Every structure is written in structure tokens, then in C-alpha cells.
Amino acid sequence: MSPQTSRRFRTARRIQAAAVALASRHGLANVTTEAIAQRAEISTRTFFNHYPYKEAAIMGPPPDYPADAAERFASGTGRLIDDLNILIESHLSRFRGDREMVAQITQLASQDQKVAALFSSAILARRAQMRELLKRRLPDTDNRKIDILAAAIVGATNSATREWVTGPDDDLISLARSYLGLIIASAELLND
Fold it and tell me: Which end of the chain is less crowded, N or C, counting CB atoms within 10 A of the terminal residue's CB?
């Protein structure tokens, strides 16, 4: 059973959906953990078994790269960009049905410092994961290049996600691929 299909994960996502809906409607300051638990149809104790506080519930389960796709990427031998596109598609495809909730989380992060800090922390964690995957894939590569590439990849996928939640384009995967393709073109600006 994958982590995304476990009962614990489904409960965590239900709590997240309740927290985001309530905070978006009433403002985060006006929402209690008890109200979130009631809306998610769980006990307050169950809430605290999943999240330490309501802002963590807004962020939900960590959006780590799927383990099987990450392993295929790290041990892959194809073109790096092709294997990267497969990894990112596997990662982002899990969020296709959550466009409105991702938009609400982004909005809440812009309004609340604690949610913003958790949002930034999640991005840094994903960047660290990407860095480790790239190190495994390219063990003889200068670590400075690995760090820069990991930052660019995560930055590109975050930019694609922001455009997806605010723009007219419904295809998150296509947007992500186009943003990943801009990494090389952006680096070429340094030669101008």
C-alpha cells in the first residue's frame, strides 16, 4: 500500500481539506482545532495525532516526491530532463484534482506568517530531497552545481504551480514541463 492510499494519509487529507475550507471561509484566526475536527468528522485527539496545530493542518501531509518515482529518477540512465519530467509528472499528478485547495493554501500562506513559514519550509524540504536525488544520480558532479540545479528545478515547479492556480491553464503537468524547459534558457541569460 502506498503512503497516499493509507488510512492515515486519507484522514490527514480530510483534516487538511476541513482546515483549508474553514480558514478560507472564516479566516484562520477564527478557526479552532475543535471546529476543524468536527468538520472532518474526527475527534480532537485524532486531529492532534496527525497535526500539532491548525497551521500544520492547512499544509497537510508533506508533499514529498513519490518514493518509487524518486528511486527510478535517482537510478535512471536516460536523459536527465526526460527522467526529470517523469518524476515531476508523478509528483504533480497527485495534485491535479486539488487546484482550488492549492490556491486556497497559497492565499492563506500570503495572509498568515506561520502558514507562510510552513509553506517555505515545505519548499526547502523538497529542494533538499531533489538535491539528494541529483547527488545519487550524478555522484561525480560538483555539489555546487547540484545545489543550483535542485533550486532551479523546485523553483520552476513552484512557478508552474502558482501559474496553474491563478491562470486559465488547466494542465499543471504541461506548465511544469514548460517551466523546467526554461531552466537552460534562463541560465543562458548569464552570457548576455
Answer: C
Q: Cα separation of 95 and 171, whole Å?
A: 11
Separation CA 18–CA 183 (nearest Å): 37
How many CB atoms lie under 10 A from the CB of residue 15?
Answer: 28
Residue 140 CA, chain-centre distance (Å), reads: 28
Instruction: Give φ, ψ of 150 to 5 degrees.
Output: -60, -45
Helices 143-166 + 80-92 axis angle, to 10 = 40
pLDDT digits (tens, 9 = 90+) for 81-111: 999 999 999 999 999 889 999 999 999 999 9
Report the candidate in 113, 155, 105, 104 with the shortest Cα–Cα distance to residue 130: 155
